[in-house]
Amino acid sequence: MRPSKALPILALAASTAVSSVSAQICGLDICVYINENADTIRFRMETTASRGWMGFGINTAGGTGMNGAEVFCAEKNADGTVSVSHRYASSQATPQIISGSSLTIVPNATSTANQKFVATFDRAKTSTSSQIATLSTSAAQGVIFAWGSGGLADHGSNHFASQATLLAPSNAYSSSSSSTGPSQSIPTDSTSANDAAQASDRLRVAHGLLMFIAWCILAPAGIFVSRYMKVSLGVWWFRFHIALTGVGVGALTIVAFILSLYVTPSSRHFSVADPVSGSHRVLGLIVVILTVFQVVIGIVIDRLFKPERKGTPWHDKAHWWLGRLSLLAAIANTYVGILYYDNTYGSLTKSTTTGLYAALSILVALVAVVFGVFEYRVGATKHVEEVKLNH
Known about the structure:
- By secondary structure, the protein is of the alpha+beta class.
- 41% of the residues lie in helices and 18% in strands.
- The chain has six helices and twelve strands.
- The strands form two sheets. Strands 1, 5, 6, 7, 8, 11 and 12 form a seven-stranded antiparallel β-sheet that branches. It has a five-stranded antiparallel β-sheet with strand order 2-3-4-10-9, with no helix packed on it.
- Helix 5 (314-345) packs antiparallel against helix 6.
């Protein structure tokens, strides 16, 4: 969430903060309460008084990140007022003001007093705009949080993404204009929420790392050995091939797949609503299915091998081409995975994202050159004397 220095959309004088109940949706040290009324949705955003601005967003495309998020930015002004702007994030860039949208401030529930920075406002319950989210009473939706210490500016690393059932009764708040202060203090940081988010993020990184090792290193090595090293390695080519692909690629792919299921809400396991995340899930599922099938067909091919055979049977050729298809799909999905992670969780700097793309491209190019050289100089090798290897 990278808001610009745009003019405030709503401004009001600081006033007495109001009481709130204990239920809330929290990320970083921002907590949000949501009430559903007849024609409006009321939002109450709270954070510590030291923050210069805070932002809260709701993903409108079924994802959990910044891309496609309706965003509310609240900023403290120099004269003691608070400004709230209604925005839409179409990319990892400054969310733009939503044209024609209006928010209604709740003056007696917005302030920078009592060691808290609070902004309360209403927006229409329904809208025909694709930039405004429809909140659910039962399904988890992607939410994002961000803050800065000065005026509206790039949040840097101060951002957080999660999911929440926004209109669940437990997320509502109560208020009283006669209250002299908040009945509940907001913690300086949501430790448990951040710890959980960091743990999930580590699992996502582990998923990506396992798939990278499996498909960008082990799979090409396994294919290389089986195609070019039969003569030079003798009986060992098959053993290396099994170790690299059947055990290495197969095991790492299954573990990575389980991790992806674990860190993704069950309602979104196979969701394709968002083009990027949907593409990643579809390609990933294809790769997992092909991996399992390739391991099974590899075992069958080994059992059907006949030293006296005169040609290459169809099932061997199917194994070759399915392996190549799996490799291409997995490499393509690695690129999509980097884009998905950056779009959804926004925790990569531009230079890091560029570096990952560059490193992956260099590795892919290197593998392609090595295969090209060996294809030209060595060509595909066959079983030595077509004798079944003793393995």
